[in-house]
Design brief:
It is built from four helices and three strands, in the order αααβββα. By secondary structure, the chain is an alpha+beta fold. The longest helix is centred in the first third of the chain and has 17 residues. It has a three-stranded mixed beta sheet, with no helix packed on it.
Amino acid sequence: MDTRDRLDPPIPSNCFGNAVFPCRSTLNTIQLVGEEGFGNAVKEIRRSLDEQINNEEGVLKGMDTIFDRIEATKGKIKFGVAGSPKFDYYSTDFGWGKPKKYEVISEKFALAGSRDSKGDLELGFCLSKHEMDAFTTIFTDGLIN
């Protein structure tokens, strides 16, 4: 979650760097499978973001226990998303030109705004061959049906 304008005082939008903080959601596997699975995930992520954004104590509430919460998830199946379409990575120029390709490899799933057209998304995947084959099959089946 981009927190630059939600801090007190806010960080200017032209600041070099960012203030991205994790926003965590938890669902049971049964809630993620079937026709309602994707919608359930979106609703839970939205709920979690709203809770963090609208917290009276500010967006940093709970950051003092972030490492304890990460430790508590060891051994559990996790799905992370890195990046944001809100950050315009392709317009960034540090003096050596704008990037031709932007990729995130810190999570299995990455999200960025498209280089080629406004409003489109680039999705990145960092999966094993077995996971990628399964994803491809499910994704293709979803497009067909």
